[in-house]
Specification:
The chain is mainly α. Helices cover 46% and strands 4% of the residues.
């Protein structure tokens, strides 16, 4: 889903311009931090992209009713499968970078 990107110019003390502000990103990172401290306790670099995607998804549906959130989650699971052996497979360096990346 494409999103319009807007920005504010903090260097000239601009905090908000119409719908553009930093509060949304601050909210996203705060939600991810609470998830780290309260749910996962550790986020490995190998799977960091999965955690970020999960919390970005949570952030994007935060204004929906709970039942709508659940329906969307279940609909997104249709036809997808992640086996434990694939999740824990040695598919790259432990630092989470793709093979050959620095």
């Amino acid at each position: 889903m494409p999103f319009d990107h807007e920005s504010v110019n903090h260097s000239v003390k601009e905090c908000v311009r119409e719908q553009a502000h930093a509060n949304g990103m601050e909210s996203h990172w705060a939600m991810m931090k609470r998830g780290h401290e309260g749910i996962y306790h550790k986020m490995s670099p190998k799977h960091l992209d999965r955690y970020v995607q999960e919390f970005a998804g949570r952030h994007n549906i935060r204004n929906q009713d709970t039942i709508d959130q659940m329906k969307g989650t279940v609909a997104g699971m249709v036809g997808k499968r992640l086996l434990h052996r694939e999740l824990v497979a040695d598919n790259g360096p432990s630092n989470g970078l793709a093979p050959g990346a620095r």
